[in-house]
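Throughout our pipeline, every protein is held as a single compact record rather than as scattered files. This encoding replaces a full spatial description with a residue-level series of whole-number codes. The remainder of this section carries one protein's record, kept here as part of the documentation.
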Amino acid sequence: MRSTASTPAEEKRGPGRPRGFDRETALRAVLLLFWKHGFDGTSYTDLTEATGMSKPTLYATFGDKIELFRQAMVMYAEESIAIYKEALDQPTAREAVEACLLLARGLQPKGEEPQVCFLVQGALTGSADTAALRAELSAMQREATRMLKQRLDRGKRKGELPVDTNTAALAEYFSSVVTGLSVQAANGAAPKDLNRVIELAMTAWPGKHS
């Protein structure tokens, strides 16, 4: 567990920086704001209230709003990649895919975290100023698809998939389902309906299966 005690660096805080300032804690508060309200829906007032920092100090510590979003995005990606890898590490490729779909369903939220992938939420931002940021988000999502293909390739080599399976297309298909599940979860879809979607998606699994 991370200590809440102030370090010497934290004691040397700038103007407007709250006593006992912890950068990671502040960034997580920012992450939750962007996650709940999106980039465009989060104001500087929201950010200063959540962090307890003045606007000038917020700029000095994290940069502008786009850079702040990017840092929150990196924090999320670093944490979520470990969870995604754990899902992909299931005994069989089929179980790995099902685990990924269940994660996307968004029924295992931590604390107050919203029930939608932050990368999906961020990619839906429409501001022209965030075009480069959306490209970075898309690259992260493409990396997840690449990892899924690697897991499918491993399953194929072990005979869990037919030898003629197009693992690239299969990875694209299930990645699309993951995105759709995440968006639907954010829109308030009922868990039972999302479970039916998962069941239906898994009928696309190549070859005979129970």
